[in-house]
Amino acid sequence: MNKLTVLTLTFHQKDLVDILIRSFEKYRPENLEITYVVVENSNDTSYKEHTESLAKNVRWFNNPDADVGEASTANGMGIEFGKHHVKDEWTFVCHNDVAV
Predict the structure, then answer these.
(1) What element of type H or E holds 62?
(2) pLDDT band at 69 (very low <50, low <70, confident <90, very high)
(3) pLDDT exceeds 80 at position 57
(4) Could you give the 3-state DSSP secondary structure of residue 69?
(5) Using one digit for the tens of pLDDT, what is the confidence trace for 21-37?
(6) Residues of the chain above pLDDT 70, percent
(7) How far is CA 53 from the centre of its chain?
(8) Cα–Cα distance for residue pair 45/39, rounded to 1 Å
(9) CB 3 within 8 A of CB 24
(10) Residue 96, class by beta-carbon neighbours within 10 Å (0-12 exposed, 13-18 middle, 19+ buried)?
(11) Contact yes or no for 68/76 (Cβ under 8 A)
(12) By three-state DSSP, how is residue 50 classified?
């Protein structure tokens, strides 16, 4: 079985994360196992449970350093934070507005 991690950042955007995961799952080949690492760049956990229910391997993290002011800095820090939770050989890093 091939394994891939999809690492995505979000900021209060439940609908976009929902579309991302559902689209990857819809078109995922049977021989590919995907782990989704979702990094919420805020303290918002209001949709964590919903997001984790979308697929078998969803791992949700709040980025404790997200409140740094500038969005591009927060994105870079979120990616670095998320990389520490990636275990697969292959990783696809994307914003939460990506769909297959």
Answers:
(1) strand 58-62
(2) low
(3) yes
(4) coil
(5) 999 999 999 999 999 99
(6) 92
(7) 13
(8) 11
(9) no
(10) buried
(11) no
(12) helix
